[in-house]
């Protein structure tokens, strides 16, 4: 005889079994070499408590710089602090790098290894900027901090051995979206930007408003996290209209005159569709834009796997090569 309690238990077990089956299908879509045990965990950010936990577990991540690069920290007038990575031999180019984290977590210390490696391998100066995080500091706080960092980099170009005509901006995830917004603002304000390096960038809040029927975006950065982060950054939930310039890069109507771009994204990434659309719009506007879509890759997969998995090493090398071609001198 089935009691109400046993029926409830059976219902819970059936729900769990169904969830496991759905997760198995999701993980099965990932390229075999990218399948990691933590992909089975349904992690997301959708509340202040989860944000606090995320900041403690992931936002405090620190990596070590590679050897052969001088690393210094300096304050930016009108902004936050930055880390400056100077290689022993330089070619005159520079990159202003923006860390990821959904605009709600993360810090530049987490990208010490990446920033210093790019500086060393390309012989360019890399500046990795801190910016104020949402929801405590919604738009335009982060963008204002990055605009100040870009102006400061131009002001210090001579001392750093940088050609002001070969300064790029770039970032990953939310950092890529902020870099795209910064490129738009800099273009309008007459601040030179030579190139935009957009690594699976967070570009369009309207992704939140679209039906979530796709198999994309079920790993690492989910629709739930995306909705919460955009709401925190904009100061309101995503909606049909958002008139503020630079708040959402993909909402800009005229993309002509923007710097050349490289955009890379995995085909399982929640940002796939918005990134592909932005690349196509750049191309249609006459902006040189290279798009790379990595098969079987989920959001930010290369962060932990670029040293051990060949496809992720190749993905990382693609973005480095694109940056190098854009900002190194021809003699280099």
From TrEMBL:
InterPro entries: AB_hydrolase_3, AB_hydrolase_fold, GDXG_lipolytic_enzyme. The keyword Nuclease does not apply. It comes from the Bacteria. GO terms for molecular function: hydrolase activity. It holds the Pfam family Abhydrolase_3. SUPFAM superfamilies: alpha/beta-Hydrolases. Residues 95-301 form the Alpha/beta hydrolase fold-3 domain. Keywords: Hydrolase. This is Acetyl esterase/lipase. It comes from Geodermatophilus normandii.
């Amino acid at each position: 005889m089935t009691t109400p309690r046993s029926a409830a238990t059976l219902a819970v077990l059936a729900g769990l079994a169904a969830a496991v089956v759905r997760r198995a299908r999701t993980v099965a879509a990932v390229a075999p070499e990218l399948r990691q045990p933590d992909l089975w965990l349904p992690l997301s950010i959708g509340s202040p408590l989860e944000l606090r936990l995320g900041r403690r577990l992931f936002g405090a991540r620190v990596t070590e710089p590679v050897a052969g690069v001088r690393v210094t920290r300096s304050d930016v007038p009108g902004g936050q602090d930055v880390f400056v990575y100077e290689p022993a031999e330089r070619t005159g180019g520079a990159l202003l790098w923006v860390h990821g984290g959904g605009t709600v977590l993360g810090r530049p210390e987490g990208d010490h290894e990446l920033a210093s490696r790019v500086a060393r391998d390309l012989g360019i100066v890399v500046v990795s900027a801190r910016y104020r995080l949402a929801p405590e500091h919604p738009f335009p706080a982060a963008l204002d901090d990055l605009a100040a960092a870009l102006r400061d980099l131009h002001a210090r170009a001579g001392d750093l051995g940088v050609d002001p005509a070969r300064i790029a901006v770039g970032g990953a995830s939310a950092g890529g979206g902020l870099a795209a917004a910064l490129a738009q603002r800099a273009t309008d304000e007459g601040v030179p930007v030579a190139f935009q390096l957009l690594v699976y960038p967070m570009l369009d809040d309207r992704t939140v408003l679209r039906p979530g029927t796709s198999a994309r975006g079920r790993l690492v950065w989910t629709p739930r996290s995306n909705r919460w982060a955009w709401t925190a950054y904009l100061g309101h939930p995503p909606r049909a209209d958002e008139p503020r310039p630079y708040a959402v890069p993909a909402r800009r109507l005229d993309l002509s005159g923007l710097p050349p771009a490289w955009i890379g994204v995995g085909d399982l990434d929640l940002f796939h569709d918005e990134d592909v659309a932005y690349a196509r719009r750049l191309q249609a506007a006459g902006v040189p834009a290279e798009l790379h879509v990595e098969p079987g890759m989920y959001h930010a997969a290369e962060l932990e796997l670029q040293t051990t998995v060949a496809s992720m090493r190749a993905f990382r090398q693609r973005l480095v090569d694109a940056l190098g071609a854009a900002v190194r001198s021809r003699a280099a």
